[in-house]
Design brief:
Layout lengths: L2 H14 L8 H6 L2 H10 L2 H7 L3 H11 L3
Length: about 70
């Protein structure tokens, strides 16, 4: 996935979870979308309990990772 797309996904998820997307800037470059999203979700109390356990959210993250 293109770097700007990963940045956009990370930024949107961080905003949803009230996190600073800049704190994940290094992760955007070296991680895949799924790993990046899981790291962001795990860093948030809300994300880890509600979104990470939500099977549909994880399906969409896996789906988004297949885009070029």
């Amino acid at each position: 996935m293109a770097l700007t797309r990963k940045q956009n996904v990370a930024t949107a998820l961080c905003r949803r979870l009230a996190l600073d997307p800049r704190s994940f800037s290094d992760e955007v470059e070296k991680s895949g979308v799924k790993d990046l999203c899981e790291k962001i979700l795990k860093s948030s109390q809300d994300g880890e309990s509600s979104l990470l356990s939500n099977e549909e959210v994880m399906k969409w993250i896996s789906f988004a990772e297949t885009f070029p």
